[in-house]
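**Polypeptide and fold**
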Amino acid sequence: MHTQTHHSPQLMRQPRRRGRHLLGWLCALMICAGPLSAAQSFSVQGAKTTLKDGVYRLDALLTFALPKKVLEALDNGVLLTFALDIDVRQPRRYLWDNSIASLEQRTTLQYFALTDQYLLRNLNSGHEASYSTLTSALHALGDIRGLPIIDAKLLDPDEH
């Protein structure tokens, strides 16, 4: 369902620019997983925001290269927890950036030797999915689509 909204002529001319500017605010996209963060075992391949139904949403592609010790721990039943921390900030010229919003998505990865399956569990939503390979589980973990970040009404269009 598409809802028509009316904006001032200035906003009508620059909808894409506002989305790009919001992406500039996503200045702290960070993945943490205990020893993972120290090992720099992930990379952000791409990230963009889109405005849909009045909410800015994040699409991102992250890739992971788990260190050998982390893989051994996972194979031995250790539950790994990944945290995706997103901060939306307004850059300021002479002061520290103004924090507009922050969001944390936590996901666990667990290996079950009996079924030879990897389970991803989103701790925020409760959604679970099983994968037959570690590669497919890590791909699913890093494929972020349509993650709601901030309601557009919370952003002042004249300032942001």
